[in-house]
Amino acid sequence: MDLQIALLLGQDGIVNGAIYALLALALVLVFAVTRVIFIPQGEFVAYGALTLASLQIGQTPGTLWLLMVLGVAVTALDAPALWRQGCRAGPKIYGLIGRQIAYPLVIAALVLGAQPKDWPMLLQVLLALAVVVPLGPQLYRVAYQPIAEASVLILLIVSVALHLALVGLGLLFFGAEGSRTPAFSDASLEVGGLTISGQSMWVVGASLVLIIALYAFFERSLYGKALRATAINRAGARLMGISTTLAGKLSFLLAAAIGALSGILIAPLTTIYYDTGFLVGLKGFVGAIVGGLASYPVAAAGALLVGLLEAFSSFHASAFKEVIVFTLIIPVLVWRSLTTRHVEEEE
Amino acid sequence: MTSRQLLIVFVVLLGLGPLVLPEFYVTLLNYIGLYALVALGVVLLTGVGGLTSFGQAAFVGVGAYATAALTTATDLPTWLLPLANPWGGLLVGLVLTALIALLLGVLTLRLSGHYLPLGTIAWGISLYFLFGNLQFLGGHTGISGIPALSMAGIELRDGRHYYYLIWAVLLVAIWLTHNLLDSRAGRAIRALKGGVVMAEAMGVDTARAKTTIFLIAALFACLSGWLYAHLQRFVNPTPFGLHIGIEYLFMAVIGGAAYVWGALVGAALITVLKQWLQDLLPQLFGATGNFEVIAFGLLMIVVLHRARDGLWPWLARWLPEKSALAGRHMDAPPLPRRPVPIAGTPLLEVKDAIKQFGGLVANDRMSLHVNAGEILALIGPNGAGKSTFFNLVTGVNPPTAGEVRFMGERVDGRTSRVIARMGMSRTFQHVRLLAGMTVLENVALGAHMRGKHGVPSAMLHLEREEERCLLAEAARHCQRVGLGEHLQDAAGSLPLGKQRIVEIARALAADPCLLLLDEPAAGLRFMEKQALAELLKQLRAEGMGILLVEHDMEFVMDLADRVVVMEFGKKIAEGLPHAVQNDPAVIEAYLGGVE
């Protein structure tokens, strides 16, 4: 391997690592706030990419139907309690119907009636996000909120069940063939004999912007601080008037947005299949576990390491790429088990 | 009909199955048996022990590939030749599985609960890709031409032959698991769900118990893989992927993860459902694919929301009740007891113990001693540091500085399990019983350290004599504290005051010389308090030392020989009950200063 190849692989690793880092951050966020290990994160990657691909070739993405069905389900779950509150709950009921019934109908009208095939790419991306991102809080409401106080283990099993259902739906919505979307820009940069594609720069740039935005959100905004408070102490946060349900939905909204955007960013670089997201998400996971599911910077660094390791192992032993990446978790667990003194969590 | 007769009917029906059923159903039943064997391991792991693995399919793969590779290889080195047959394959598979399970267990079981499942996800994926990419394992096309098994001169040629083997293995595995759970070792495993602190205080080596069940579950899976390989005569990586590993967990949870028969119910349901949905859904959707996972995922979420115990408890309502075993245990000979220290010898001596949590000093230079045949009461306002002191003495949270001696030996820095073995027993302020287990079983858990038979003899029920003695001992302690009529009630069904008494019986069953009681009288009614006081006086007369934390002053002043008062982590008074009651510092601590 000469320097040229090493640089090429390094570039590959950094691009993938940036995506894994984003996913790792979302996973740490969701786990810290809700104690949910969000295995279905990867499905949002696939849904984001494939929804965009469907819109671009003029097909109706199946995720649109999921958005509408879940909207009805959330309304059915939430409306009875609001109804019992009587007239005080009036605005809340309108809000609920607006978000869960009217919004999906508007989006459906846009997708079906406004020919998004011919839109500029930026608007297509926004429409794809508008379809996929609300699924996050909807799924939280339907699958997790009823058992929000259950043990981490039960929540994990629910996550795995949800992952399975979403993969199956992905196959139903998008079929077994993969899709690749056109690049955001055809520009490329020549640095010291190395060509860097415009899409790679988009991925790394967008990841950096998102990470900074997340940092600002958590440090500066009230909602960000509420999420951090919930992560540190749920009961305490509730006593301060922070709704843990809202915090849960908000963290799922962010996770879904990060997942879908990640998918949209990598769709021009690699072919995305309905089940691609799972492996991508799990690599983010390996990064998150490096950070002990608690530290954001360490998780991001770990994810970058996963990306680089993957790139270099695909050169030396491409058949064993996945084996090497997922075996990385073993030394990490050794290190964790040697450094953590396990103290039982009091329920 | 008793449950034993029902079981016999079930086994007879199973035996007649292949004689009357068409080929298709025999095959289906074969697969149900194979899956149930894996799910049984998951029941032990998840439902009983509170751990989870998504990687069981990978262990099935190890079992299948080990025998496939050994029985089909053509150019084996000579030293491997004796293993180039199905039995050698089984042996190698089991050894490999055990090694992998032990390694994973050592790595992940010390960490908090979710690292094991995450580790198994990663390992499940790794192994799947490894199977698919190693040339000597046939890559993604797999290995074909695996020989049929032959046993006692009979070659097992078709599914009907394997049927008997598979179901015999499964029934034996169910029998072994059932035996294990109904034993001393099984109680230790079931105690894992009550939390590590409680189990260790009963002398259970929790890390070892966790590793054991992970190992057993892995070996069951490996055995299923071995049977699968010889039934199919062909293996490829697909049935050992992560999604199948997840399906095994679903089988256990849907069937009833806490029940051995739940594994069978779950495996049957999921297998039949999968068969049906794989025909139905592609027609319905007009496309091919594994759409049944959508239904499984949704079904699983509904089960976890609405009926977390799965289907088995619901089915079990129609089964005959187990006959009460209450009186049966009383005639066993008593267990040997440890020598009772002479009254007045110092049992516990704490000198200048300090416990700091960051900047907070929860215990500041605490000193006290408890002698044999004496009741020492430790009192103080809420937040004075009494529970911290308990944890410090019992080894749950060792002191930052200072020394703790028990029976003349330094014990600070030792684990609570070691200290418990030396003869120190405790109860918990927040009751920590296993709500689903009977009172008798909960108390028998206290006697854990007085038995010695391990998992293998428990599985074969070779330890019945010891078990009878342990249960008799537990029953005697239940009688003694006045729980004689509740032996077979679920501990969680008792009122809170009675549950505290169960905790005392459990502590006594360990045959301690020092008893630590954390607010034993809270929630008791007047008569019950009097009975408790009588019991404690009796124990004192027998030479036991008792350290008592309690808020009920009348109870304390009537009972204690000496009283130590704590406030803000410090000892502010010590002496005879009445002297302490009139101590100005104590009055100030409890009632505020006189202006």
In words, what does this structure look like?
- The complex is a heterodimer of chains A (347) and B (595).
- Chain A has a two-stranded antiparallel sheet.
- The longest helix of chain A is centred in the N-terminal third of the chain and has 32 residues, at 3-34.
- With 347 residues, chain A is an all-alpha fold.
- Helix content of chain A is 74%, strand content 2%.
- Chain B contains 23 helices and 14 strands.
- Chain B has a six-stranded mixed sheet, sandwiched between helices. Chain B has a four-stranded antiparallel sheet with strand order 6-5-8-9, covered by helices on one side. Chain B has a two-stranded antiparallel sheet with strand order 1-4.
- In chain B, a hairpin with a 2-residue loop joins strand 5 (346-357) and strand 6.
- In chain B, helix 3 packs parallel to helix 5 (115-133) and helix 3 (56-72) crosses helix 9.
- The radius of gyration of chain B is 29 Å and the shape is elongated.
- At the A-B interface, helix 7, helix 12, helix 14 and helix 15 of A face helix 5, helix 10 and helix 12 of B.
